[in-house]
Write a structure and sequence with these properties.
heterodimer, A: alpha/beta, B: mainly alpha, elongated
Amino acid sequence: MPPYHHLRYIVAVTIALCAIFSLPAATTVIRGPYLQSATPTSMVVRWRTDNTEPSIVRYGLTRTELTTTVKAEGITTEHFVHLSNLKPNTRYYYTMGAEPVAKPAAAGTKKAGAAPAAAEAEDGPGKAPTSSFVTPPESGSSQPTRVWVLGDPGTKGDTQRAVRDQYYKFTDKRATDLWLLLGDNAYPDGTDTDYQKAIFEMYPETLRTVPVWSCLGNHDGKSANSITQSGVYYNAFTFPTRGEAGGVASGTEAYYSFDYANTHFIALDSHDSDRSLDGAMMTWLKADLAATKRDWIVAFFHHPTYTKGTHDSDKDSDSAGRMNDMRQNFLPVLEAGGVDLILTGHSHVYERSFLLDGHYGKSTTFNAATMVKQKGEVRADGVVVYRKPRARTAHFGDINVVTGSAGHAGSKTKPPALNHPAFYISLNEAGSSVLDIDGLHLTLTFLNDKGEQRDRFTIIKE
Amino acid sequence: MSRRTNLFVLALLSATPAGAHPEIQDALERLTTALAATPNEASLYLERGELYARHDDWPAAEANYLRAAELAPRLPRLALARGSLALARGQVSAARVLLDYAIALAPSDPTALILRARALARLGLTPDALTDYTQAFALLATPSPELYLERAALFASPADALRSLADAFVRLGPVISLQLRALDLEVALRRFDDALTRVDLLTSASERRELWLKRRGDILVSAGRHAEARAAYVEAQTAIAALPAWLVTSPDTVRLSIELTRLATTTP
């Protein structure tokens, strides 16, 4: 071979190799997209890819005109893009990456598990890479709001799927505005693999269309640390720490608050943060309660103040005293701050109290005559109605709901006692709760895994 | 293992936490089954010890850790787990020794550094504790406000405590629990202008300005600036008047309004 032939050969091979290595690596979205830290004017979009690539979101007001592009710095597999300057209460369409290759939806999620109203027909991995979300309305405004509440969902099993599917059937065309996870989101250890199966592959359509908020459960806490703000839970979620979503700056994702329309939501860490009376979480809570101007205050955390389900709030040793701490230390402050509704999980049952105030001891100290502020009027349609003044009034009463059975209920063969006197109703059934807030009406429905509405109450402010 | 230790371990390893949750039982059964198959697997004893420790069953946790230590003294996380347990049980000197070892094995573990800082603080070794906190903060992306408060509490001088919070505001933003601590320190140091600047920042960021304006008035009273204090109380009443009617008539707001009227008229 003449010498120049060698040269031509080397040049040709070099060009071919350059061409091969300059091709963009095909990436697959293996988690998400999912929506975080929603405010009326901003949204965080997160997702994970199997290979590193730039974090790019293209979005716009119509599906066919994704006219704005936001690119985060660097290349990564864990993508985080903050969209800002959005319009309140507006639907945005979005897609991730320059040319993303989407993974087909997890098995089952496109069938009975499909969220009919949350996603429009053309949205979705496996079909079209464009999803959509609606930004929250202006804080303080009043508009019908639907919240899906899931306590202890993460069993990855048939019960979790049944609870999910019954909610999708129930809500049908009514879009979900936000959803709350009450902790123990991914059993058994809250690992990344647990989260992948129990959350990201279980609710893909809801995740990419509805902002999700959470508090830390004990099983999440096995792979996370609130003091160091590290671990799977803290890596997976992005929550407001500087009051950017409407609350007071907490400085931590372990506890935080946010507004949605005329409701102020408060997430507490009952598992791993300091629960003492002079701790940072308590200091923040008092300031946050004092600062809000919203009509409704809803607090959520993992460990219930009262339960006789798969846990017993009368036993000091149960959950290392965390239920005592929340009842004795935090409940008085929440009630003084005018909280309306407290949502908890941990106990794998549904228990719902009367409108209560002042019960901070064991169940033997419960005094219905002084602590039950209202038993509730039962309307002809079975809905139990409570009434509160609109003027925020300390210690007027709140309803405590334990809804920790979105993954499984207590044992059927050795059923829990379910005999705490603070509760109006106690059920050993799997299910989730649906919170509807419309102006000065707040309604919660417990929907079991058979699709039956097993409890429904309304608080009316006048 | 001595016969005595054997009995101790056997007695404790079969213990279950009072009020055990079904999932804890499941985890214990899973670990016990695994240990039956591989009785010399130290990591399983560590895992079981951690499970007990999470539920405050300290004797059972310790028995499992000891067995793990016999099998694999340098097992990652073991010294940390044992140090954490000793600290929780109030065995501070023992905790310090174990955490020294944990940090020798993993010098960049912020959790071990924080635990040792707490142990050192309880032993009265404040400078060493401060060093550990500072080193841990450098390793953490976002140290929690609790940690900054813990560190600030170690300083004998309010001025040093206040200085120690400055880094927190840079890294975490205007966190309320830290702002309030800083405010208390500034008032204690009679740095009233700094305190007022801080209150003004809090006022501008709040939807309920009246609460912070009252605080401003209180600080001005402490500073002996009574005319300005009266003006702050009056401004707080104006802020209340601007609230939605349903909040103006809330009992807490009514009480605050009455208090502001009293302060505005009685402040000399």
